[in-house]
Hints:
This protein is 38% helix and 20% strand. By secondary structure, it is α/β, with parallel strands linked by helices. Helix 1 (27-45) packs across helix 2 (50-57) and helix 10 (313-337) crosses helix 11.
Amino acid sequence: MNSTTRSAPATRGIKRIDLAYVQLATSESARDINRDVVLEIVRSQQPVSRADLARASGLQPSTVSAIVEQLIAEKWVKEGAIERRPRGRHPTLLALNDKLVILAVDVRPKQAIVALLDLNGRVLAREVVPLVSEPEGSISKIISCMKTMRDGYPNRSFEGIGISVPGRVDPESQRLILAPNLKWGSYNIKSAIEKEMRLQVELTNAANACMLAELWSGKLDGIRNAVLITVVEGVGGAILANGQIVTSRSGLAGEFGHIPIDPTGPLCGCGQHGCWEVFASSNAALRYYAEIRPDAAPLGSHELIHMAEEEDPAAIAALTRQAAYLGRGLRLVTAALAPEVILVAGDITTSWARFGPTIQAEMEATMLAGNAPQLGITNDSEFARLRGAAAVVLQRHSGYQRSGLKATRAKIPHPTSS
């Protein structure tokens, strides 16, 4: 009997909808979505005319005109030059308003980087602020720097403040709920800064900020499933699943660094023994170096990498060990999520040509089956955190409020080199 190939039957019936999460569309949400579409087209095609916006968006010209007037009134968009054409009307071109700016802060355990960015992602100013052990004093120093920075740009409109933190943030309360390397407890960063700066503050996890910056830059265009791993004092993670950054209702999604890989290992800041980050972080590399050279003076991770580039054998051994653990730990990611792409951000990426192959080989050796994900590195991780923090402000302030950070670049201006 001859066999024939049959196509899969068409799906029939009603698709299951989880009513715990569903929201009914309203005329207001539809307007916000259209507004986001128009703003994204302005961002990507600027300068652009109203007629071109209508053609690109598929919206009625009257709808586009109404949205544009709203965006101009809210200072997101500005009118610029008049386009000269051989015949017919001479339309006024639109662009993002570079007078609207965002303060962005990248908080780390020992220092914070404060920057001012415009809607095109340009870094207009940048300062490094050394931090102290207690949060009140540290936030006071950050606020002082931001006030000075704001005073230096009196002709700009300040939209808000975005803060990248080395920990997890509750999406509802915007309070830190897990930050073992920062040790600020439940201190209310958002409230303290808003009280002094009179600007709305948005907090985000550092890894999620880096992921959002990658989306902003367009590096992940066409990728719907990816994981970004930050490797600094600790190890953090951000998850892009089906085109959306996953934070979970608790905000804890992506904490791969605090999954134990050896219960007999060193004590982690989270209170458990043998977490991935105690073997694969920059602090781990420094510990390995101290074990090899116990009489050496204390040094930082950038110094260790520089010494490796200068062919110091102890530094090379320490960083190679870190890279091996980083690659082995990626089994947690590949087995759980099987992403298309894994990106690494952090100190070790500055010497990727030397240590990247070790990470790649260890990851490939621990695959359950199939091909390993594409492994790469982010753009400059410092500016990625700052741009990601600024992008969170833009996402949450410019209209349609999403449940989670969607992997569209709508409302997120394209960065330019600083």
